[in-house]
Design goal:
77 residues; three-stranded antiparallel sheet; 2 helices; 17% strand; globular
């Protein structure tokens, strides 16, 4: 649903980190439409302007740690 927004972030991540390190970016239609200090600010302001599910809020950090999770399990198949 927000695949193109996330792919846009990944493509431009290095440039964004140089400009917006630590900020929360609101991305809609492959464009940054907002830059905020907190995730709550980004969400609160964005829902006033856009329909839920039409924008991505992404913390601007280097690497994959801020958008990748690893789940470990002891289950054996």
């Amino acid at each position: 649903m927000l695949k193109k927004e996330f792919e846009y972030y990944l493509k431009e991540q290095e440039n964004f980190v140089k400009q917006y390190l630590g900020k929360f970016l609101v991305i809609k239609d492959e464009e940054i439409v907002g830059i905020y200090n907190t995730e709550l600010q980004a969400y609160s302001e964005s829902i006033k302007k856009f329909e839920l599910g039409t924008f991505l809020i992404q913390e601007c950090q280097p690497g994959e740690e801020n958008f990748t999770q690893t789940f470990r399990s002891r289950v054996i198949f």
